[in-house]
Design a protein that fits this description.
The complex is a heterodimer of chains A (252) and B (379). Chain A is α/β, with parallel strands linked by helices. Chain A has nine helices and eight strands. Chain A has one domain: Rossmann fold. The chains are: A alpha/beta (252), B alpha/beta (379).
């Protein structure tokens, strides 16, 4: 993979991520997808919400960026895209932002089929506020607000957006670089509402609270919750054991 | 020059319109290019009118999933280069406060029309004026806002154009604090041949969030113009970079956001005076209630009372200079309001004379006879 993606970083910005944060990898994959597509960066808009995921485009990416309120990135993006359809419009934000507080906007944007790509940086907890449970935290996982382990079912975001009408949905680990870059490119190129879930380990909060004391262990922990479509073999986006199934899920 | 004269969209002439239709046509005349809203009584008629009319004029209409999404999408649209508007009523106005704060902090011009009803909460869908303090203090942070209070169908039309002009000029959301009575009122509307519009100033390469003047309004670029804008409602420097732990950046930013309104109160804060030349008593009123107050003044004049009316066309920034001067030449000011007392606190803090509240919060308009009676009681 070339290093050309670095040219798309906003000048003089220090990347804001913790050591080992999966979001740093995701930033690289998003920019690599843009490089490979040859997207006009002067006609590209990144919109993000509040939380660690929101910091992927803002201030890191050197395009127009709109950093919004917590949960509201999608409606801001809807307004911008409707006002200027020439803008290649991407929303990059976290799971708490897009699926918890912003869940209503996510399903309605998918239903209305706005021509935009939503990339969810899923770190399975609220990282910026110190690691609390959210709607994507796996059952049993420890967070600061589930000290005895999470007892509530997490969302299957792929099934959620597919059910709401997304034209394309894909899920990969941030460590699956080539597959994730290909999925982001496909999502950008496909008209209508497209969705990419990037499973992004959070060693600082989610890892440490679950007694994963190194970056390597934190990654192994998250990887243990994921299985590939081929290995799963059932075509479901969450398998019978509750594992998140990676792959592409194209709406017919 | 940012001001330009353009043709009216509707042909010049006299129309028999409701306030809801007039405010929608005013937005169209102001070249509003984006509307987003969510149905709520008593303002649904505005969005229905716009849903029919916007496709004819090449503007974008969106019915969103809620009021939060409506106001947020307006901020996105205005940053993408279109003038934007939303319309709501009390419960929706509460939901919109956070989005309004984003517009204020990122200096995104937009217009919000609130057709006030009787609250609190879902309350009654009939008339009220319970949101006038919320228009000033509803957003966390407490920065100054601009809010007007139309009293007629004519002012719903002219006031919408005016609201867009000052929103663009000051790069801030402008609140049109109408009420259900003005929304549903039907009366004659005069539409002229042309309208004067303030257009966004562009200055490529200049910082979009700062300028030398302490009360300055920076030029406003749009997405897609190659400026690679960094827009955030967190504390930011003149280029939009977050500086969320730097006291000086916050101080400079919030002081300019405040100054750009409060150092221009003389231009922004407007009143109208009726029968005040020789008055020794006055009524200070706004919105639909000012119509009843004017009728009450005329009735009392007939019986020899030297009473006059100061109508607040602008609620915020408060027309303090005019109200203070009024308080120095009358012995008493009555403030009738369709709430349990809101603007009366500001009048009382501003005017040196006796200030008497008259409050009616029952979902009905205040009749002139009630105001006449209140003034007799106060004497």
């Amino acid at each position: 993979m070339s290093n050309e993606w670095r040219d798309y970083l906003r000048p003089n910005v220090t990347l804001p991520f913790c050591p080992g944060c999966g979001h740093r990898l995701l930033l690289r994959h998003v920019l690599t997808a843009l490089v490979e597509l040859g997207v006009d960066m002067e006609k590209t808009l990144f919109v993000s919400g509040i939380g660690c995921g929101g910091w992927i485009p803002s201030p890191c990416i050197n395009t127009d960026t709109l950093h919004c309120l917590h949960g509201r990135a999608i409606p801001f993006a809807v307004g911008a895209k409707m006002a200027n359809p020439e803008l290649t419009t991407l929303v990059v934000s976290g799971d708490g932002d897009l699926a918890d507080i912003g869940g209503n906007h996510l399903i309605h944007a998918a239903r209305r089929n706005h021509d935009m790509t939503v990339i969810c940086a899923n770190n399975m907890n609220y990282g910026m506020t110190g690691g609390q449970v959210c709607s994507t935290t796996p059952i049993g996982a420890i967070t600061h607000t589930t000290p005895l382990g999470n007892q509530r079912r997490p969302f299957d975001l792929i099934a959620l957006v597919k059910g709401a009408g997304a034209q394309y949905a894909a899920r990969y680990l941030v460590t699956e670089g080539p597959a994730l870059v290909a999925a982001i490119k496909r999502a950008i190129e496909m008209p209508g509402f497209t969705f990419v879930e990037a499973i992004s380990p959070c060693p600082t909060q989610f890892g440490r609270q679950n007694k994963k004391d190194s970056i390597k262990e934190a990654y192994a922990y998250v990887e243990s919750m994921v299985v590939s479509k081929d290995a799963s073999g059932k075509g479901l986006s969450v398998d019978a054991d509750g594992l998140l199934v990676t792959g592409e899920y194209v709406h017919a | 020059m940012p001001w330009r004269t353009v043709e009216s969209v509707l042909p010049q002439g006299r129309y028999y319109y409701t306030g809801a239709e007039a405010v929608a046509e005013g937005a169209i005349a102001a070249r509003c290019g984006y509307f987003a809203g969510y149905p709520i009584t008593p303002t649904t008629e505005v969005m229905e009118h716009i849903a029919h009319r916007f496709p004819e004029v090449g503007a974008v209409f969106m019915q969103m999933e809620d009021e939060i999404a409506s106001v947020c999408s307006c901020v996105g649209a205005t940053w993408a280069g279109r003038k934007a508007m939303t319309v709501t009523s009390g419960p929706g106005f509460s939901l919109m406060q956070e989005g309004l704060g984003h517009a204020l902090m990122t200096e995104a011009p937009m217009v919000l029309v609130d057709g006030q009803r009787a609250g609190p909460s879902t309350g009654q869908v009939t008339v009220g004026a319970g949101d006038v303090m919320q228009a000033r203090w509803g957003m966390h942070g407490g920065l100054p806002t601009i809010a007007t209070a139309p009293w007629s169908v004519q002012e719903m039309y002219d006031g919408a154009i005016h609201a867009f002009n000052i929103a663009e000029k000051y790069r801030t959301p402008v609140l049109v604090m109408a009420d259900a009575a003005v929304m549903h009122l039907r009366e004659t509307l005069e539409i002229g041949a042309a309208v004067e519009l303030y257009e966004r100033e562009k200055a490529p390469g200049q910082p979009p969030f700062g300028c030398a003047a302490p009360d300055g309004v920076p030029p406003m670029p749009a997405f897609g113009e190659g400026e690679k804008l960094l827009v955030t409602a967190s504390t930011h420097n003149e280029w939009g970079f977050r500086r969320t732990a730097d006291p000086e950046t916050e101080r400079v930013l919030v002081n300019r956001l405040s100054n750009k309104i409060m150092m221009h109160v003389d231009e922004l804060a407007e009143v109208e005076e009726y029968y005040l030349d020789d008055a020794d008593e006055a009524i200070v009123a706004y919105g639909f209630t000012a119509r009843a107050a004017l009728a009450a003044v005329e009735e009392l004049r007939a019986s020899g009372r030297r009473v006059g009316l100061m109508r607040l066309r602008t609620l915020w920034p408060f027309p303090a200079r005019q109200v203070k001067e009024l308080g120095s030449r009358v012995k008493r000011i009555l403030v009738p309001e369709m709430n349990l007392g809101q603007m009366v606190y500001v009048v009382d803090a501003t005017a040196d004379c006796e200030v008497v509240p008259f409050n009616q919060m029952n979902g009905a308009v205040i009749y002139p006879s009630s105001i006449v009676e209140a003034l007799w009681r106060a004497a």
